[in-house]
Amino acid sequence: MNRVSFSRLLAGVALVALTHVGPAAAETMSSALARAYRNNPDINQQRAALRARDETVPAAKSGWLPKAGVQGQAGRQWQEVSGYPGSSGKFSQASYPAQIGATVTQTLFDGNRTANGVSQAESAVLAQRETLRQQELITLQAGSTAYMDVLRDTAVLGLRRNNIKVLQVQLQQTQDRFQVGEVTRTDVAQAESALAVGRADFAAAQSSLESSIASFRRQIGVDPKNLAPAQPVERLLPKTVQAAIAVGLEEHPAITGALHQVDAAESSVKVAEGALLPTVGVQGAVSRSVDSSGQPGYNVNSASVVGTLNVPLYQGGQEYAAVRQAKEQLGQARLAVDSQRVAVRGGISTSWGQLQAAKAAIVAYEAAVKAAEVALNGVREEAKVGQRTTLDVLNAQQALLNTRVQLVSAQHDRVVASYTVLAQIGRLSADTLGLNTPAYDPADHYDRTKNRFIGLTTADGG
Fold this sequence. Notes:
It comes from Rhodoblastus acidophilus (Rhodopseudomonas acidophila). Keywords: Cell outer membrane, Coiled coil, Membrane, Signal, Transmembrane, Transmembrane beta strand, Transport. The chain has one domain (3-76, 93-433, 442-449): Up-down Bundle (Outer membrane efflux proteins (OEP)), CATH 1.20.1600. 64% of the residues lie in helices and 12% in strands. The protein has helices at residues 3-11, 16-19, 29-39, 41-54, 56-61, 113-179, 185-220, 241-251, 253-274, 318-384, 390-424, 430-433, 442-449, and strands spanning 67-74, 77-82, 90-95, 98-109, 279-290, 300-310. A hairpin with a 7-residue loop joins β2 and β3. The longest helix is centred in the first third of the chain and has 67 residues, at 113-179. 34% of the residues are buried. The model is unreliable at 1-23 (pLDDT under 50).
């Protein structure tokens, strides 16, 4: 095999898996992420959790609405009377007493606990929406990583497979030269050893690809087939790391969600303080009794409207402890915001650095690949005239293979890092990526639920 053939065997596979699109319709990064956005169970579980959280708002508003009930009882009563004044002997009588009534109660003032409870519930809904947004962000980032992992490991597997072909040819040529006395048995052993190592590396690459396929299936929901090349999303990123940090501190769902939790905690303090205030209410009742007091024919109709006032004076200190606890939880929520800001800032700085390193690595490894190709060709020519050994040739081939693998990994890292930065600033979403899938609107369910005070079916008909 001539020197050009060896180079072509290695170069021809270097980026095939990252750039080749077969005749069938290719799965693109966008279509894969759209599939994950629609069907990923982690996202769907968070959507269900948000719908459940929406129901806390009408539950909190119930404190503003009247409570109505109907009570009734009926039965048979028998009594025997003796020694009744003015009567001799004894007598008995049976009656069928029955009573039915209705009551309606309306709270007029409850220390603003209902109003603050509604505010708390609404803030909790907003916080849950941010939790959903963060789960979408996490899933899309994991999906993009899984997509690129399959591309990378497919390319590496191709390089490893091609390396075995090169080493087989090298071994055959070394054996032929050994037969004519040009090289020693040591050269043959070195070629055999290199081929064995190449086969072991190929097996390891197969294992890595299977693992990446499993991760793809878990995140996207289907097996990867005919994946198209993917590009970094740097066009969607701020120009500088300082601008990226500013965006992240403003928009990342972990921070905005924590701020909504602070709002909920503030309302919780007010709810607890409301237990120390008086409550005012009114109750109306109507009833009808038949055979009242066991007297046949004695029927009573009644109606009443009663105002109530309850002023708590001292309840054993429970309310005071609840207020103090709520205040401590408010302080904890505020500290959680600071903690999230620190985490987001650190995540952006780290991922931005990884993106810049990957871009620089691509430039370096592209140059390294070209240099390694030249070096391999030169070593092979020198080996033909006895200036280089078989081991020198094998080392040069391995150096070229390693640089090609590193180039593929750097290209993978650049795409993954760009998605990671977009996630860290809080902008990795179906809308930002322009995915061809209907966006999930959490406000739709909320609007159909927030003032729904009767009915057992869910807003979606469940």
